Amino acid sequence: MTSDRLSADEIQQRVGELPDWTLEGDKLWRRFVFVDFSEAFGFMSRVALAAEAMNHHPEWSNVWNRVEIALTTHDAGGLSKLDFELAGRIDRLL
């Protein structure tokens, strides 16, 4: 499933609705910090299931208790509504 790239105005509006997410270049970005590796990995597993259900997968990294997630829609060449939908789902998994 592809999605159209959002305009700069649409992106700014949607970022404002996700207070813990920031724009890093053409990506939506957030760092999560957990108590330990096990908690971080459990979170990543839940995110993986949500992402797979949407067929929209994050760029991410994990170091011990930290998870960093960057979202973008490669097919659209930037941010699309899918990125913001996945970010919202990720926030609800906390």
What does this protein look like?
The chain has 3 helices and 4 strands. It has helices spanning 8-16, 37-54, 81-92, and strands at residues 22-24, 27-33, 59-63, 66-71. Strands 1-2-4-3 form a 4-stranded antiparallel sheet, with helices on one face. Strand 1 (22-24) and strand 2 (27-33) form a beta hairpin. The longest helix is centred in the middle third of the chain and has 18 residues, at 37-54. The termini are far apart.
The biggest beta sheet reads: 4 strands, antiparallel
Query: Rough shape?
Result: globular
Give the neighbour order of strands across the main sheet. Answer: 1-2-4-3
Number of helices: 3
Helices and strands in order:
Layout: H1 8-16, E1 22-24, E2 27-33, H2 37-54, E3 59-63, E4 66-71, H3 81-92
Antiparallel strand pairs: 1-2, 2-4, 3-4
Please give a handful of descriptors for the protein shown.
94 residues, alpha+beta, 4-stranded antiparallel sheet, 3 helices
Task: Give a short overview.
With 94 residues, the chain is α+β, with helices and mostly antiparallel strands. Helices cover 41% and strands 22% of the residues. Strands 1-2-4-3 form a four-stranded antiparallel sheet, covered by helices on one side.
